Amino acid sequence: xxxxxxxxxxxxxxxGVTVITTELEGDIHGMTANAFMSVSLEPKLVxxxxxxxxxxxxxxxxxKIFTINILAADQQELSMIFAGQLKEHREVVFxxxxxxxxxxxxxxxxxxxxxxxxVEGDHILFxxxxxxxxxxxxxxxxxxxxxxxxxxKLETVTI
Length: 159
Known about the structure:
- By secondary structure, the protein is mainly β.
- The protein has one domain: Pnp Oxidase, Chain A.
- The protein is 14% helix and 47% strand.
- The protein contains three helices and twelve strands, in the order αβββββαβαββββββ.
- The strands form three sheets. A seven-stranded antiparallel sheet has the order 3-2-6-9-10-5-4. A three-stranded antiparallel sheet has the order 1-11-12, with no helix packed on it.
- A hairpin with a 2-residue loop joins strand 2 (18-24) and strand 3.
- The protein starts with a helix and ends in a 9-residue tail after the last strand.
């Protein structure tokens, strides 16, 4: 199989869209990612996967912190900003969760401290110990087969 086929196959897994942020020497950095998952309930751990060429990689290594912002359906523009898809400068507002930068309006904000890192292929897996979490009641932004999507509201029937 070639790289394109592998990438296309992996794109058939519908995911939420996250923006990973960190802060180093007072500057906030972020990137759009969908390589995120929960690892453990006790202790509360998550993992993110960052490519070896990503600008944010060394910033997370140095700061030892990151946040995961699971984007809401109305935050597609933020995803595009942090993915480098919008070239014109846009001001991004941040809030704080456990002293770490998060994006307001996200479905979920997860503040983490790096507890371990593992090199796997051309990515670094960062295991994060969750230090705080904030949830809101919003529909998530979905990514499937190379396109942004949203959940359709379905009527539920009580039996």
